[in-house]
Prior knowledge:
mainly alpha, Lysozyme, 9 helices, 4% strand, Transglycosylase_SLT_dom_1, Lysozyme-like_dom_sf
Amino acid sequence: xxxxxxxxxxxxxxxxxxxxxxxxxxxxxxxxxxxxxxxxxxxxxxxxxxxxxxxxxxxxxxxxxxxxxxxxxxxxxxxxxxxxxxxxxxxxxxxxxxxxxxxxxxxxxxxxxxxxxxxxxxxxxxxxxxxxxxxxxxxxxxxxxxxxxxxxxxxxxxxxx
Length: 161
């Protein structure tokens, strides 16, 4: 569960970034550092998941992916979040994505398997099908990471500020 204080802190961080943009980094930088995850890796996941769209929704209502980092609705009750919070607060969406990725990095020895597990939790896929899905997703993230440029960073900074 993400405490209310964290939700307020994410909103405050977003406000402060807007107010003091030249002084502060964007939410990818802040939450990347907070969770020990490379900020550009978070940016690449956001591009892979939603093409950088903070309003993106995918999947059926029973298992919907929400916002910039496409947070699956299964996480809502675990962290006491709402769909509207994740859609209206890109900084909170990035924080949750960074938290999920950090948890995966703690669970898997191979960091790229952890990246693959961000998208393919493998509750339905098993064995080689799971491995293949994770590798395919990790490869897409890797390609987006390699092609990340200043223009894309600026676009994401505008969204995550």
